């Protein structure tokens, strides 16, 4: 683990919920979305490695809109989130991390969310594609794979921005698309979203038990309808008739 900056931070938890848990494949890349309140749009954001040496210590990997080594952090103020991309993951990247909004005051705590990442050759949860694109009005399918250890855990498909989840074997119709999840019982489950709308675009996650894996959905315009004009030519034939008297 490369160390770029070490700061003593006073940190408060952003939300009262269990840590997000990720099981990732050695050598792979991952992009993780981190949400923040809109009141923090102008604040700095960063990705931090929790060294566990003391409560207030962490190693800052990169600030928003910057790349340091294998880590890139990108802020999306219009969506109230920033993403963290980690490339070429290795077992040494296993550990606890924080998504952090910097508040700036000595006595004002920064706002954080806790995450835990485990990197190994055979992850317990993965997806066939982490970025899926479909056309408006069409369908997409996301395939999620889980290990035998998660065979009997609950499988879900959740939307990142509001935390709403669809559970396996249950079809739900919302103001957006229709979502259906089915588990084949052979270590994979599929998510089908039909009747896509532009408002369906954004970050989601597949989950099995306490694990999740992020997936980004893009929705584009359907191809234009091409019309062919048909021109019919009409030929007029004139006959001249002579009259003999």
UniProtKB/TrEMBL annotation:
Localisation: Membrane
Annotated keywords: Membrane, Signal, Transmembrane
SMART domains in the record: IG
Signal peptide: 1-16
Pfam families from the UniProt entry: V-set (PF07686)
Lineage: superkingdom: Eukaryota
GO cellular component terms listed in the entry, alphabetical order: plasma membrane
GO molecular function, one term: transmembrane signaling receptor activity
Family annotation (CDD domains): IgV_pIgR_like (cd05716)
Span of domain Ig-like: 123-218
Keyword Transmembrane (UniProt): yes
Protein name as it appears in the record: Ig-like domain-containing protein
Native species: Pangasianodon hypophthalmus (Striped catfish)
Lineage start: Eukaryota, Metazoa, Chordata, Craniata, Vertebrata
